[in-house]
Amino acid sequence: MTEKVSIQISKKLYEKAAKFVEENPDFDSVESLVEFVLNELLTEEEETALTPEEEEKVKERLKSLGYL
After folding, report:
1. Degrees (nearest 5) of the Cα angle 62, 65, 68?
2. Mean pLDDT for each 10-residue chunk of the chain (68 residues)?
3. How deeply is 15 buried, as exposed, middle or buried, from its count of CB atoms within 10 A (0-12, 13-18, 19+)?
4. Which of 23, 30, 25, 22 shows the shortest CA–CA distance to 6?
5. Residue 4 domain-assigned (yes or no)
6. pTM of the model
């Protein structure tokens, strides 16, 4: 079993999440919703990160356009 830690969020946000969980059978708890959302967000960031080569191309393009 994966070790768990506690986080704190506002009561208002928790209540919104709880309502969402009630209306969506894909999630059985607020905790599962939060874990899913964080996992999606963090995975998306990893997938959209530029390689050093891509970053250099972007910098070159911005420089040629006069932004750098």
Report:
1. 50
2. 90 96 94 93 71 88 80
3. exposed
4. 30
5. no
6. 0.62
Kindly give the interhelix angle for 11-23 and 30-48, rounded to the nearest 10 degrees. 100
Which residues are CB-contacts of 30 (< 8 A; sequence separation ≥ 6)? 14, 17, 18, 21
- In Å, how far are 4, 8, 22, 24, 27 from 32, measured between CA atoms? 12, 15, 12, 12, 6
The residue type found at 3 is: E
Please check whether residue 35 lies inside any domain of the structure.
Answer: yes
State how many domains the chain has: 1
Cα 8 to Cα 4, 21, 32, distances in angstroms: 13, 18, 15
Q: Are 60 and 54 in contact (CB under 8 A)?
A: no
Is residue 17 situated within a structural domain? no
